[in-house]
Write a structure and sequence with these properties.
There is one protein chain. The protein is mainly alpha-helical and 505 residues long. It has a domain of 216 residues. 72% of the residues lie in helices and 2% in strands. It is built from 20 helices and 4 strands. A two-stranded antiparallel sheet has the order 1-2. A hairpin with a 5-residue loop joins strand 3 and strand 4. Helix 2 packs antiparallel against helix 3, helix 3 packs antiparallel against helix 4 and helix 14 packs antiparallel against helix 19. The longest helix is centred in the middle third of the chain and has 32 residues. The mean pLDDT is 89.
């Protein structure tokens, strides 16, 4: 490369920093948290939560300021800024803000020096930003590893608690294994196409199709890395133990933030590197590799396994872990269609899942603090001991099931409608989804039954003390869960407008 090309590349990279402001804010927030943690006394560390919260709000403002930017490539098309990544960045920062709130009030983290904890939360969010924007195999791998490594530390943050250390170890083992498979798949794809850029990969696969079997093996191995992040079958084994062992605010974070980032990366990679489109409404697979059928099978297996195994769970966190696996299967349904309608249905559902799942974990945190238990049997009589908390949990469970009038119902409706309109080939997947919804109603109803219909003779039904902050957080999540079930238009319009990718040109 001559000096002129080097100078031009350097100039492009420097100019890209103008559109990298939210990420730079998160990097600066990490440095500020690190310095403050070193400089102030241990007993003043609650201020670190306020700093993390303030920094995430500033980053959110910076993301909103980019809402009118046209799709463009950054750092010589290593990353992209477009409505698709913008949508997910809002979701990531929303997850970070809520989890910081949950962490500040959680008794699990009380009395600990949480400086590194908030640094890890910020670093994970930064990695999720990169996952939503990455358009090169190198940046894809760096983004996934950034999220994974910080997540390993977060899962085992309660170092003195055996189950937390166990969760971190299992998360690390599964993460390293899946990353190895993904990296090998990427090396195969690079060998087949001679490029790391996903736009160039698509052109090469279209113009010079390689051996379909070799490409299929490459796709299968790459899916191992993506499937690990979204906890889809058969890469889900880490989820139940990690969700149960990690601090509950961290579990809530894992269930919405990194999972959404995995979907963002999966959608961009498969719809850009392994498919082509002329109008942005319908995509067509390249090189005769029918990966949508593969994802359809994974979707059906994921939702079925998650729901069936959840039936037997007596620990609320494990039950929600398997529920989270099932919902990953639901969200995958929109991706297999290769249509714009399917993608915005998935985006809509991810926002719905954010509200209802974070709300359910908020109830778990509240109950964990006041009744010191995560077991389903200890939720008996909660409807009388903490009626507001039980009512909010009922709303979240109704939405997770997909019952009217909740945002979960609207999300599932759009996914099923997209499947039905997608043609006869995926009607079977819609039937599987409906049957799984019926199954999920059973185990969600177990929680409602315990809260309202089950008591023991020796149980004292005294009111449990619920803090005002906890009630406010419940309202912040429960009210939109219901309102968006009746007035979903604005969210639908936002999801629809966000299905616009940078094309690489």
């Amino acid at each position: 490369m001559d000096s002129t090309a080097v100078a031009s590349s350097l100039k492009a990279n420097i100019s890209s920093l103008n559109y990298f402001v939210p990420e730079l804010i998160l990097i600066g927030l990490m440095l500020v948290l690190m310095l403050v943690d070193i400089m102030i006394q241990r007993e003043k560390t609650p201020w670190l939560g306020m700093i993390a919260l303030g920094g995430s709000v500033v980053a959110l403002i910076a993301v909103f300021a980019q809402s009118a930017l046209p799709p463009m490539g950054l750092f010589n098309n290593m990353m992209a800024v477009d409505p698709f990544s913008w949508f997910f960045k809002i979701l990531f920062l929303g997850s970070m803000v809520m989890v910081v709130f949950l962490s500040m009030s959680s008794l699990e983290l009380a009395g600990r020096n949480v400086g590194e904890y908030f640094i890890l939360i910020t670093a994970t969010t930064l990695g999720m930003f990169w996952m939503a924007s990455a358009t090169n195999l190198l940046t894809i791998f760096i983004a996934i590893e950034t999220v994974s490594i910080t997540s390993f530390a977060l899962a085992s943050y309660l170092k003195s608690v055996k189950r937390s250390s166990e969760a971190g170890l299992k998360y690390t083992i599964y993460g390293v294994f899946s990353s190895g498979l993904m990296l090998y798949g990427m090396s195969l794809l690079y060998g087949l196409t001679g490029s790391l850029n996903i736009f160039e990969i698509a052109k090469t696969l279209t113009n010079s199709p390689p051996n379909p079997l070799t490409l299929f093996v490459s796709v299968l191995l790459i899916l191992a890395g993506f499937g690990y992040k979204i906890a889809s079958v058969p890469f889900h084994f880490w989820a139940p133990d990690v969700y149960e062992g990690a601090p509950t605010p961290v579990t809530a974070f894992f269930s919405v933030g990194p999972k959404a980032a995995g979907f963002a990366l999966l959608i961009r990679f498969f719809n850009t590197a392994l498919a082509t489109t002329e109008d942005g409404n319908i995509w067509y697979t390249v090189a005769n590799v029918n990966w949508p059928q593969l994802l359809a099978v994974v979707s059906a297996a994921t939702m079925t396994l998650g729901n069936l195994v959840a039936i037997k769970q007596n620990n609320i966190k494990r039950l929600l872990a398997y529920s989270s696996i099932a919902h990953a299967g639901y969200a995958l349904m929109g991706i297999v269609l290769l249509t714009r309608e399917g993608i915005y249905a998935t985006l809509f559902y991810l926002v719905a899942y954010y509200l209802m799942n974070l709300g359910a974990f908020l109830v778990v945190i509240i109950c964990q603090d006041i009744i010191k238990s995560e077991r389903l049997e200890d939720y008996r009589g909660l409807g009388f001991r903490a009626p507001v908390v039980a009512a909010a949990m009922t709303i979240f469970l109704f939405s997770l099931t997909g019952l009217p009038v909740t945002v979960g119902f609207v999300g599932k409706f759009y996914l099923l409608a997209a499947l039905v309109r997608g043609g006869e080939q995926y009607i079977w997947l819609a039937v599987v989804a409906v049957l799984n919804t019926v199954v999920s109603l059973f185990y969600y109803a177990r929680i409602i039954k315990a809260m309202y219909l089950e008591t023991t003779e020796d149980m004292v039904l005294t009111r449990l003390p619920i803090s005002f902050a906890a009630l406010v957080l419940l309202a912040v999540l429960a009210v939109p869960t219901v309102l968006l079930g009746a007035f979903w238009g604005p969210l639908f319009d936002l999801a629809t407008a966000s299905v616009k990718f940078f094309s690489g040109s």
